[in-house]
Amino acid sequence: MERGEKEPIQVVCPRCRFTQIIYLPVEDLPQCPECGTGMVIEELLDEGKSY
């Protein structure tokens, strides 16, 4: 998969730590459904990670 296509990312609320997986590209990062704070990107969920 090339960058720029729809790819999953994990977003997290900096206030209450609610996490959600969304697909980019999106115009805006979502608001947290729990507390209404703007969510931030926590991790790009690419295949083929090595630990």
Give an overview in words.
With 51 residues, this protein is mostly beta strands. Helices cover 0% and strands 33% of the residues. The chain contains no helices and 3 strands. A 3-stranded antiparallel sheet has the order 2-1-3, with no helix packed on it. Strand 1 and strand 2 form a beta hairpin. The model has no long low-confidence stretch (mean pLDDT 82).
List keywords for this structure.
mainly beta; single chain; 33% strand; 51 residues
**Cα distance spanning the termini:** 20 Å
- How much of the sequence lies in strands comes to 25-35%
Q: Count up the helices.
A: 0
Structural Rg: 12 Å
Query: Level of helix content?
Result: under 10%
Shape: globular
Order of helices and strands: EEE
Looking across the biggest beta sheet, what order are the strands in?
A: 2-1-3
Helix-strand category: mainly beta
Largest sheet composition: 3 strands, antiparallel
Average pLDDT over all residues: 82
Quantity of strands, as a count: 3
Point out poorly predicted stretches. Answer: none
Short description:
With 51 residues, this protein is an all-beta fold.
Would you spell out the secondary-structure blueprint of this structure?
Elements (H helix, E strand, L loop, with lengths): L6 E6 L6 E6 L15 E5 L7
Antiparallel strand pairs: 1-2, 1-3
